[in-house]
Amino acid sequence: MHRLDDQNRARIIDGDRACDAVAAIGDRDEVTRWAARFAMLGEPGRLAILLAVHYAGPISVSDLATAVGMNDAAVSQALRVLRQQNAVLAERDGRIIRYSLADPAVADLLGRVRPDPQLHHRSCQPAR
What is the pTM of this model? Predict the structure, then answer.
């Protein structure tokens, strides 16, 4: 079944390919959600934070700041964005808030960005 509207048919060179392209794109809302994920990953500081959370989490803001070379305020701001995107979860541990990865799709992408890092401590294993 062709997924092309009659309005654009005059411009089409290969209807089957155009139809397959529409099918490949799929749900536009899902495309928008994935674009937001990629935008979230596109900023180096946030990507570094996500990698650290993925492989060393649950982890505190201060420990993240040290690991990624940013100040606590900048890490906190980045974590706010990541929480809004539902990429990380914050859990209270006494007076300390620790962050862990919440989105399995982001975890999969991070595993492709940095597969199998050589961690030095047994407690630092990614949540899978």
Answer: 0.80
